[in-house]
Amino acid sequence: MLEKIFEEIKASQTIIIHRHVRPDPDAFGSQGGLATLIKDNFPEKKVWLTGEKSESLDFLLTMDTVADEIYQDALVIVCDTANRERIDDQRFTQGRKLIKIDHHPVVDSYGDLEWVDPSSSSTSEMIARFCRSQPQLKLTPQAARLLFAGIVGDTGRFQYSNVTPETFETAAELVRQPFDRQDFFNHLYRNNVNVLHLNGYVLQNFTLTPEGVGFIKLSLDTIRHFHLQSSDASSLVNCFSSAENLKAWVLFSEEEGLIRARIRSKGPEIHLLAANYHGGGHPMASGATVYNWEEADQLIADLRALVRHDDEATETPGSLES
Ligand SMILES: [Mn+2]
């Protein structure tokens, strides 16, 4: 599959790279890392980046404005996006050929060629592996910086369970390239003062249930009180993850007409629960949407039941593992 993808890239003069909406460092890292690799190794090719911009991540990458005509003969590559609805810029079907590169569990097969590896920490790690697999592709400092950003973002600085020995090996290979790592970390983890104040509010007000489910409900009023928007609250989902006895947790942030739920776990897999609430994602990190606070309470109840069930399963003597 890596060879096939490389053949397609070599055969294409125009390449447009997409990723998911509400971009995170891995979305930008894989999109921009792949684009930079192609541009640096094949300067004659035209490589375009499309999607909304992100103020907090524009130190990594800025987007292009891609005219409709450019799609006509283009190879389109979508990075880090499990399903069509989540692809930023719905013109992704208008190219000559479509490639999907992703590390989320498969929910939707939309590419002519697909390379999906849920065992990878990040799509950025996959792009770095792709680079390594093709001797013709030379890694460059700017590509390394972007791919490193994606790995750091999706692994929470190498602490989540998705990290493998290969993740560290890949990171080591990336940091051998001369880019300013200190400057990169300073940018990635700088915080807006209003967000820090909301962080304090979340820490003071989250609830922890007896079975180890944590939750916080941020109404639109609360978010506005801190002069923020709902999307600003998303970065706070892990702020109480170190709480003693916490097994799974959810941060609700209300928007106009809906409430986003960001769900995380240290034990039971939560992506199927998320799928019951118009969402999905990874076994330990998913997103969902509910439409009122009663539905939010139902999600919490389901999460509590899931954690209780998981506890019983692991404590039963004579279970398959023992
Ligand atoms: Mn990712």
Automatic annotation (TrEMBL):
Domain (DDH): give its ranges.
15-151
E.C. numbers: 3.1.13.3, 3.1.3.7
Q: Which residues form the DHHA1 domain?
A: 228-307
**UniProt keyword Hydrolase, yes or no:** yes
Transmembrane helix keyword on record? no
Which keywords belong to this entry?
Hydrolase
Please name the InterPro entries in this protein's record.
DDH_dom (IPR001667), DHH_sf (IPR038763), DHHA1_dom (IPR003156), Oligoribo/pAp-PDE_c-di-AMP_PDE (IPR051319)
Cite the GO molecular-function annotations of the record. Answer: 3'(2'),5'-bisphosphate nucleotidase activity
What is the name attached to this protein's record?
Answer: Phosphoesterase RecJ-like protein
